[in-house]
C-alpha cells in the first residue's frame, strides 16, 4: 500500500491531471506521503484526497500540493520560500526538494511538534519551522522569492505582500464559501494577480493556539 509502485501510480495520476513540471513530479515521487498521516490512514495516503491530521486540520490532496509547487517554481530555482500553514509538514517536505531554504509557520503548537517529528525522520536540513501567526509572515527573514499559503484567506494579508521579493511569486487560496487559488507576481511597479482555479482549504485564522 505504501510501496514505490503506489507512489508511481500517484505520479501517473498527477500527470493525467496536468502536472508537467518534472522537478515537482520528482519531488512528489521521492517523499513518502504515508509517514505524514496517522497509521490508520496510511493505506489511503496516496489517494487524491485530503485527509484529517487532527485539530480540525487536513493534509492537502496530492494534486493541490503538486499544483502549488509547480506554480511557485515557474521561474526556475527557488532560493528562499515561506510556507504559511505547516500542518503535518508534507508540503514543507516537497518544498525542501525544490528550494534552497524553506521556512514554514504554523499556528497550532501540537501540529508543529508532529511536523517536526515527521521531518526529522526524513533528515531534511534546509527547513525551519516556527510556531506563530503566519498572517504576519516572517519579517526578520524577508524578502522571500516564493510564498505559499496553504489555508484560505478572506483577503491577501498585506504583511505577506510586503515580504515578497521583486520578481517573486505567491500562491494563495482566497475566499470563504467559494475559494479561488491566486498567483501574485511582484514586479518593480506592481503586484500582478492571476486567478487560477477553484480550491477547498481550511481557513487561515489569526493568532496562535
Ligand atoms: N501544508 C499542509 C496543509 C495543512 S492545512 C499540508 O501539506 O498538508 C492548513 C494549516 O494552516 C493548518 O494546520 C492550520 O492550523 C494552519 N493555519 C491556519 N491559519 C494559520 C495562520 N494564521 N498561521 C499559521 N498557520 C495557520
TrEMBL record:
Domain of life (superkingdom): Bacteria
Keyword match Isomerase: no
Active site: 60
GO cellular-component term (any): cytoplasm
EC code(s) of this entry: 2.1.1.77
Entry keyword set: Cytoplasm, Methyltransferase, S-adenosyl-L-methionine, Transferase
Pfam families: PCMT (PF01135)
UniProt-recorded Gene Ontology molecular function terms: protein-L-isoaspartate (D-aspartate) O-methyltransferase activity
Reaction catalysed by this enzyme: [protein]-L-isoaspartate + S-adenosyl-L-methionine = [protein]-L-isoaspartate alpha-methyl ester + S-adenosyl-L-homocysteine
GO biological process: methylation; protein repair
Family of the protein in this entry: Belongs to the methyltransferase superfamily. L-isoaspartyl/D-aspartyl protein methyltransferase family.
Protein name: Protein-L-isoaspartate O-methyltransferase
Taxonomic source organism: Methyloradius palustris
Source taxonomy: Bacteria, Pseudomonadati, Pseudomonadota, Betaproteobacteria, Nitrosomonadales
Name of the gene this protein is made from: pcm_1
Amino acid at each position: 500500500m505504501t510501496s514505490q509502485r503506489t507512489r508511481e501510480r500517484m505520479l501517473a495520476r498527477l500527470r493525467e491531471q496536468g502536472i508537467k513540471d518534472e522537478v515537482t513530479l520528482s519531488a512528489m515521487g521521492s517523499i513518502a506521503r504515508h509517514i505524514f498521516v496517522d497509521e490508520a490512514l496510511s493505506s489511503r495516503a496516496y489517494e487524491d484526497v485530503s485527509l484529517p491530521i487532527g485539530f480540525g486540520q487536513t493534509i492537502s490532496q496530492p494534486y493541490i500540493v503538486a499544483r502549488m509547487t509547480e506554480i511557485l517554481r515557474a521561474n526556475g530555482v527557488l532560493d528562499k520560500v515561506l510556507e504559511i500553514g505547516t500542518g503535518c509538514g508534507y508540503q514543507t517536505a516537497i518544498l525542501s526538494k525544490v528550494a534552497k531554504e524553506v521556512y514554514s509557520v504554523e499556528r497550532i503548537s501540537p501540529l508543529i511538534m508532529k511536523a517536526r517529528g515527521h521531518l526529522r525522520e526524513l533528515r531534511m536540513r534546509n527547513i525551519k519551522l516556527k510556531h506563530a501567526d503566519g498572517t504576519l509572515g516572517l519579517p526578520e527573514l524577508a524578502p522571500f522569492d516564493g510564498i505559499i499559503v496553504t489555508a484560505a484567506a478572506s483577503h491577501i494579508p498585506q504583511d505577506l505582500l510586503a515580504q515578497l521579493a521583486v520578481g517573486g511569486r505567491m500562491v494563495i487560496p482566497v475566499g470563504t464559501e467559494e475559494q479561488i487559488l491566486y498567483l501574485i507576481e511582484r514586479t518593480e511597479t506592481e503586484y500582478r494577480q492571476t486567478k487560477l482555479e477553484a480550491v477547498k482549504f481550511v481557513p487561515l485564522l489569526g493568532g496562535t493556539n
